[in-house]
Amino acid sequence: MPSEARIRSLPTGAAQASPGPARREPEPSVATLRIEGVRKSYGIGTPVETEVLHGIDLVLERGEFAALIGPSGSGKTTLLNLVGLLDQPGAGRLFIAGQEAGALSELEATRLRGRAIGFIFQYHHLLPAFTALENVMMPMLASRGRVDTAMRDAAALLLDKVGLSPWRDHRTSDISGGQQQRVAIARALAMRPALVLADEPSGNLDTENADAVFDLMRSVNQADGTTFLIVTHDPRLARRCDRIVELVDGRIVSDARNHDVVRRG
Amino acid sequence: MNPFAFFEWIVAVRFMREGLTQTLLIVFGVALGAGVIIFMSALLAGMQANIVRRTLNYQAPISILPPDQVARPLREGDAAETAAQVQPRSQQLRSVDQWQKVRGQVVQLPDVIGATPIVAGPGFAVRGDATKSVTITGIEPETYFDVIALQEKIVAGRQGVGPLDIIIGTELAKDLGAGVGDKLRLATAGTTASTFTVTGIFDFGNKGVNGRNVYVAFRSAQSLLDLPGGASSLEVKVRDPFAAETVAQQIRAGTDLKVDSWVRTNAQFFSAMAAQILANTLIRVFVGLTVALGIASVLVVSVVQKSKEIGILRAMGTSRSQVLRLFLIQGGVMALVGSLIGALLAWGFLLLWRGVAKNPDGTPLFIVVIEPSLFAIACVAATLVGILAAVVPARRAAKLDPAVAIRG
Predict the structure, then answer these.
(1) Is the ipTM of this complex over 0.90?
(2) What is the pLDDT of residues A111-169, one digit of tens each?
(3) Domain boundaries, given as residue ranges, for chain B
(4) B390/chain A closest Cα distance in angstroms
(5) Band of pLDDT at residue A248, cut at 50, 70 and 90
(6) Domains plus CATH for chain A?
(7) B408 to chain A: nearest residue by CA?
(8) Of the residues A1, A141, B135, B358, which has the maximum number of CB atoms within 10 A of its CB?
(9) DSSP code of A75?
(10) Distance from CA of B319 to the nearest CA of A (A)
(11) Taking phi first (over 0 means left), then psi (-120 to 50 degrees means alpha), and beta for anything else, what does residue A225 get?
């Protein structure tokens, strides 16, 4: 199991492997994520039109490790989809690494998503037709269009860092749930994103594996300064984050640093 | 650059491998469809070529004849008066006016391979007590053989035609009991008659032609048929027999002579052939449609089955156009592989056909040419159909909302 000490700096999949222009690092003053008055409704124009997010404001600075908590139906996944540029807000503005998402075309938003955002899902969502190594390569392959040796090396290094080198050529269906989620983490980090969005990353794992996955994300955050926004129902894991944002009925009802939470607790 | 290293190609191939049963089923379907189309097309082309070859064995694609003689009633007085009844004129054997000059002009046409004068008219072949009605054809062997391959049809004797030589068909030889070296007398309806020596016997594979046609020297026929210095028609060979009518129209435009193409004179045959081509085309279209629908339906199912994977790929930064391409590739690859297998099947069946479909004498029923271009065209067309069939499912995949797709 990889420890925090072991993972000092993950390979820079895109930056190392590609001789092309390196990803522009956000300047210290530019927040990794800035959300201003974001609203989202479903069933627009129908009798059942429902607003699920009522003007969300949120800023995540570079290197933050934040938990997004809240009861089911509070709008966490909707917010995550908006931040991940998988959906568009009805109103408000959203900036990823200083770039306003609303001003981007669909293709530009897709490219920004591939370049700047990594996804970790509850059910790993690996591609079953591919090996662990190929799954990790996939974001780089989609971005650059064709396989090269550097890409393969970067993916192998990532798998090594999450302790899965022996399983690199195994189909993802042949490895355990915890290992699958670690492959998913390696895949999310392949493009060295500024922001990683994790939707219940340990929700499908036992406590031991959940802790291991959490430790892995934490070590990546500390080693590379990658910003994490983690949706979780597990208060134990939420308390281990630097910051806890609580969403209830589409509104942020609390946004506190970890020590505040501990003090309140 | 390795084309198989591209993202779309890699994902497309893996998706197909993952749904191997579906992929194999549709590849098999395409193979059957392509195989049937290729086999049918080759067979039909062989049949048509065979019929055309047999017909043009003894008939030139174009015949240039003197214009028909028509009765012109004399009109007197008021021009509005018309004859109540005009008796059609009987047609006499006449020469093509200035046939040497016409021939010189015709052979200059780019689509014309050769032109030869003939003198042809009715007569009787008499040997002993036997008399048969024949068509006497006077030929110039040096040019006639370029137009009609009579020399290839000689089954006994030789092909040369001297002033007193005659070449007859197998049927007439049997009817008259004549063989090579025997004498027979040719007589016309007039008083002219000559005795000729049988120097060759031909077989065109057509009983009527073998029993009716006799070939003598050009000048001998001119004397027999009372057409000194004349040619009753010019027989013209063209590069593309199916373009004969077009060439005939060109000749018609430059002269007032009567120009018949075999397309016109065999209108019924061409009508039957057109019906056959239409039926074959319809079958090809419907087989193609079935194949296209098969590919489309498999890919539609694949899009539904793979919607989560598509959503994940989209979340990882895969563009809509990349998703579109990877499904188009699947359609194209399944169709290409299927058509290649179909081409192999068709090739095997055509070889089998060659071995099995034979006349009682062991000769092929008809020659089926295995044309590589037909196979190539069929494979390219099938691949295009596969890609086109994949357009709808590919667009559907590209339009998937990634958030919804991932949620399932």
Answers:
(1) no
(2) 999 999 999 988 878 998 899 999 999 999 999 998 999 999 999 999 998 889 999 99
(3) 3-55+270-407, 99-240+247-256
(4) 21
(5) very high
(6) 13-20+62-86+111-264 (3.40.50.300)
(7) A125
(8) A141
(9) S
(10) 6
(11) left
